[in-house]
Amino acid sequence: MRWRALLDRMGCADVTLSARHSFHVVCERVALPCIANAAAEKGALEQSLRKRSRSGTPAPSGGPRRGRRNRATTDQQTGQEQALNAAELGKDRAAHSFNPFLKHAGVCAALGVLILLAWSNSFSGQLVFDNRAMIVLDSRVHAATSENVGLILNHAYWATIYDVGLYRPITTLSYLLNYAILGNAERPAGYHALNICLHILNACLVYALTLRLLRKLWPAAFIAAVWSLHPIVTESVTNIVGRADLLAALGVLSGLLLYFKSTESAGWQRALWLVGLTGATTLGVFSKESGVVILGLIILYEATWWTEREQLRGLLLGCAALAPPFLLLLYQRSVVLTSEPPLLSLTTDNPIIAASFFRGRLTALVVMAKCLGLMVWPARLSADYSYNQIPIATGALHDWIAWGALFVVIIATLLAFKRSREAFFFAGFGFVSFIPVSNLLFSTGTIMAERLLYLPAIGFAGCLVLIAFWAGRSVRWEALAPVVLSAMLIALGLRTWERNRDWRDELSLWNSAVAAAPNSFKVHLNLAAAISNLDPAHWDTQRAGQIIAETERALAILAPLPDSMNSEMAYAFAGKAYLLQGDSLPRPAGNGQTTMTPESRRAYERSVEVLSKGLAIDTAFNAAYRQEQLARGRTDSEIPPAGLATLYYAIASADFRLQKYGEAVSAASYATTLDPNSPDAYVAMGDALFAENQREDAAIAFMEGLLISGDHTFLPLLRGAYTSGLDAKGCAYTGGSEFPNPSCELVHSDFCKASSRLIKVLQAGGRQSVAAEVQDQAVQQTGCSLEELR
Questions:
Q1: What's 239's DSSP letter?
Q2: What's the burial of 582, exposed, middle or buried (CB within 10 Å: 0-12/13-18/19+)?
Q3: Is the dihedral of CA 309, 310, 314, 316 positive or negative?
Q4: Predicted model pTM
Q5: Of 61, 82, 100, 328, which is most buried, counting CB atoms within 10 Å of its CB?
Q6: Measured between alpha carbons, how far is 188 from 577 in angstroms, rounded to an integer?
Q7: CA atoms within 13 A on the CB side of 241
Q8: Cα separation of 240 and 196, whole Å?
Q9: Torsion angle in degrees (nearest 10) through CA of 722, 724, 730, 733
Q10: Is residue 591 reached through a cis peptide bond, with omega within 30 degrees of 0 on the bond before it?
Q11: How far apart are alpha carbons 648 and 670 in whole angstroms?
């Protein structure tokens, strides 16, 4: 091809062109810039050579007898000069190739400094929101063992609660890295440091990506800086469990760059780049499901510059490299998630689930407009947007405003295709990367979340910076864009620094969320929980009143929902809140005990009222779950019991305070069936049995709790049961030991009965392996017979 030969001679062999490009396209877009670069390089080299020549020594003149010697000397000097010139030429070429590296390294270093400054106050942030569930409560990350790695690979992301349909093993493995390998345990600073390092790395990748697209250093640097300092990404960086977004973005951004390199290579080099693409995609999709957007972004890139590139073969090879991690993810999800406990009802987290298809998609467009608005003006940010912060679209004025704004953005994006392919690509980048979490194609686990904008914000930053530089050219003031963007970076950095303070603890986080999203039931509920956790040992009427006020606001928001769409967790928490209020109200009686006042009784009765509503919601959920499992072909005996264990424990506690001991025993017993590892349920069941004067059954309940949890708080409860007249022979405790005597006939019998009940509970819950361990322990250590354990 004649253009290829010409470009090779001009030193532009790395440019990809098609044979159908016209002469003026080659000259304007490729040849002229390459000639200019070559001329500049040649001028620099010639100037260097002239300096070297001026420093040389002229050859001496002499008579005939000295002519040969002079010529030899001259030839020697000439050879030395040529060698020196060649060495200088090599140095100049090395410097010419090394200087860009220094510039790019400097930009990345500057990005790192800016990020560290903006997030300098995040290292002291506590383990808030979902962080405790993913780090403190998930025992899989507490020790670096092959068993824990297997549990991570073969169980869902939310292993500590009901499954919510997520499988992110690489993210969980990163928590294991922090907790067990780096030794951070429950100290959050190390987790924050790793998140910030990942964010800095992603910022450098954004810079590399935009530099490749724009071929201009300053616009690329500003795009990376605007994105990395934008407050909208705070939830992904400051919130520790936002690491899923950081790792997924790392996979997507590095995968894009690897794909670009693969299209410029051939043979074994292309194969290596494609293998790297497969690895990067594996990292992305197994960190978070949204990593699949890399396929859409690759197609978008090729479609945007198709006439210039025509990389059909490269595109097909890139898609082939994506296939293995995509297929492996689908297989693992099908294996892991079908064996997990039932899905939680997510309607309150995402009301679009319960809406009709048409209204749900219209609501998703409203959410998209709101997300765009937050990127434009990130003044009011919230950690949650649950029901009913964003109502289902009804065609109200605010809905039309949102749809109109999106329409304008779409038209502007389409018009940008002819004027600026780069602007079109960045707008498309934001849209394509948002699609999987937008609820447009399918309903997701949340209606809106700022962490979902981590990747889409790159597209927003790209469009913003390109508009700024276009405005500077339009008014013929080239300094306009750098000045405006620098001021914007200062404002964004300050807002990010301020937003980090909201994430320092639960109370500050949910106070800020209530101010930004007051119509979300969950922010009020979480604020009530944060207040209750300030100092549980010192309750007073004022604090109880604050908790009840926030709880009632949450229940008022949920009130219009039917049972099948409501939140049993909200009513379980509300019931416990009223129990705490009632406990703070009793007054001392004359005999040194306490008596129930009318106010405390009303609090307990209100607790029973809201817990009954929660029970109705849980019953509706269980019925729907059972029907779903039967439709999948499972028999009734194969379906494990379902429900919210904390709800039934709260019911048992409320019934106990109102002296309804039989109902308390039933509720606590079902709570142990749902969650055999919950010590509180065994305590509630034992207390209720003891109050009904069923002391041996109470001792057996306490012993069940001790066996399954190993919690030594059951030891004084057991002693109290045996020393209350149950141990007629006085053999239950000997030698001052705090543990009951297994040689005592009564203790031995109760131990075997407790083991038998625990085995049945575990088997009913589908925990066969744990039941077998309890049986082996009872047989080998205590001498229980198999007949006693039946």
A1: S
A2: buried
A3: positive
A4: 0.83
A5: 328
A6: 29
A7: 18
A8: 10
A9: 40
A10: no
A11: 7
Burial class (CB in 10 A: 0-12, 13-18, 19+), 567: buried
- For residue 595, list its beta bridge partners: 587
In single-letter form, the type of residue at position 211 comes to: L
CA pair distance 122, 128, nearest whole angstrom: 12
Which 8-state DSSP code applies to residue 594? Answer: E
Distance, CA of 51 to chain centre: 59
- Report d(CA 442, CA 438) in Å as an integer: 8
Element (H, E) at 623: helix 598-631
Tell me phi and psi for residue 588, to 5 degrees.
-65, 140
Q: Are 568 and 647 in contact (CB under 8 A)?
A: yes
DSSP code, position 289: G
Q: How far apart are CA 718 and CA 646, in angstroms?
A: 23
Token pair in block for residue 460? 């927003």
Written as six digits, the tokens of 371 are 């997300």
Question: Which tens digits make up the pLDDT trace of 107-155?
Answer: 999 999 999 999 999 999 999 999 998 999 899 999 999 999 999 999 8
Rounded to whole angstroms, the Cα distance separating 688 from 654 reads 11
Q: Which parts of the chain sit beneath pLDDT 50?
A: 1-7, 9-11, 13-32, 34-36, 38-39, 42, 45, 49, 51-75, 77, 84, 89, 91-92, 94-96
* C-alpha to C-alpha distances, 415 to 70, 418, 423, 561, nearest whole angstrom: 74, 6, 10, 44
Which tens digits make up the pLDDT trace of 24-50? 444 444 444 544 454 455 455 455 545
DSSP labels, 166-234? ---HHHHHHHHIIIIIS--TT-HHHHHHHHHHHHHHHHHHHHHHHHHHH--HHHHHHHHHHHHH-GGGH
Q: Determine the Cα–Cα distance for residues 264 and 351; give it in Å rounded to an integer.
A: 46
Taking the C-alpha atoms of residue 485 and residue 472, their distance in angstroms, rounded to an integer, is 11
d(CA 448, CA 198): 24
Could you tell me which of 557, 544, 545 has the C-alpha nearest to residue 514? 557
Return contacts of 90-97, CB within 8 angstroms, 24+ apart.
92/44, 92/45, 92/48, 93/45, 96/41, 96/44
CB 736: neighbour CB atoms within 10 A? 5
DSSP character string of 469-499: HHHHHHTT-TTHHHHHHHHHHHHHHHHHHHH
CB 764 within 8 Å of CB 673:
yes
Query: How far apart (Å, rounded) are the C-alpha atoms in residues 284 and 169?
Result: 11
Helix (H) or strand (E) holding 595: strand 594-595
If residue 599 lies in a helix (H) or strand (E), which one and from where to where? Answer: helix 598-631
